[in-house]
Specification:
Blueprint (H helix, E strand, L loop, with lengths): L2 E6 L12 E8 L2 E10 L2 E7 L14 H10 L4 E10 L9 E3 L2 E5 L25 H13 L4 E2 L3 E5 L7 H9 L4 E3 L5 H7 L3 E11 L10 H25 L20
Parallel strand pairs: 1-4, 1-5, 5-11, 6-8, 7-9, 9-10
Antiparallel strand pairs: 2-3, 3-4, 5-10, 6-11
Helix pairs in contact: 2-5
Length: 262
């Protein structure tokens, strides 16, 4: 049996892919976290709504530290995350998925480590930020389900909550960005510090400013997200079953200092 966390963002709010669930609250050193506990195919699943109920928490106000602390405390080993993104490239069309493999951080005011001064200086390797085993599993399942998926891509994380302007988008493109969003950092780094196997499916809801021929709106994001909901449901259900419980990747030993998280 595996213990899996699912972190869902804009447009993915409830664990309607599961038959039974219960609400739980987990206390952490950084605050309390509301989660939904459920199961699937004899695996324990913890479902975390990144923006809270009814999309009530803006990207820059999300308690990323508490969220990862809670998953670690619950014994989660694997984390599947979703993120609504805008495309920086014409070929990455709305409605497609990107199994991201790198990120560029343009956030400004977010705590980005689980370590404090008492822990000492910690430098964590981020050569491959996203778990290669989960990424490989998601890619293979996407192919089998005929979901239009890009097997790699660089996620540009901005502070939000505003959308980006055209000059910023041009800069991100020049720097090698493929998609842009507001939530994947510092989540990906914190997951690595907590020795979790973590991967994100970027769900392309729109073209970014300057690429899109119309002004961006939250409604456009939500409308396109709803069209992709069945694909993300099928992808995650299959991944829950297919992911190997053995964890032969380096994620589980990225750090040793967090082994006694309370």
């Amino acid at each position: 049996m595996k213990t899996i966390g699912i972190i869902c963002g804009t447009g993915v709010y409830s664990p309607d892919l599961f038959s039974a669930s219960e609400n739980i609250i987990v206390a952490t050193p950084c605050g309390s976290v509301n989660l939904i506990k459920t199961s699937y195919s004899n695996n324990t699943i913890y479902f975390l709504e990144r923006h809270g109920k009814h999309h009530s928490v803006a990207p820059h106000n999300i308690n990323y530290l508490a969220n990862i602390h809670a998953l670690k405390k619950l014994g989660v080993e694997f984390v599947f995350a979703t993120a609504a993104v805008g495309s920086l490239k014409a070929e990455i069309t709305p409605g497609s998925f990107v199994i991201i493999d790198q990120f560029l951080d343009f956030t400004k005011n977010r705590p980005s480590t689980l370590f404090d001064e008492a822990s000492g200086v910690v430098h964590i390797d981020m050569t491959s930020p996203y778990c290669p085993e989960i990424r490989s599993t998601l890619i293979n399942i996407s192919k089998s389900l005929n979901i239009k998926t890009f097997e790699a891509g660089t996620y540009v994380c901005t502070e939000g909550p505003r959308f980006e302007n055209k000059a910023e988008i041009n800069m991100y493109k020049l720097l090698g960005g493929d998609v842009v969003g507001m939530t994947n950092y510092p989540e990906v780094v914190l997951a690595r510090e907590a020795n979790l196997c973590y991967s994100t499916v970027a769900m392309v809801t729109n073209y970014a400013t300057g690429i899109s021929k119309t002004p961006l709106s939250h409604k456009e994001v939500m409308d396109n997200m709803s069209l992709m909901s069945e694909n993300i449901k099928n992808l995650f259900l299959k991944a829950i079953i297919d992911i190997s419980p053995l964890r032969s990747c380096a994620c589980k030993a990225a750090t040793s200092e967090l082994g006694n998280l309370k």
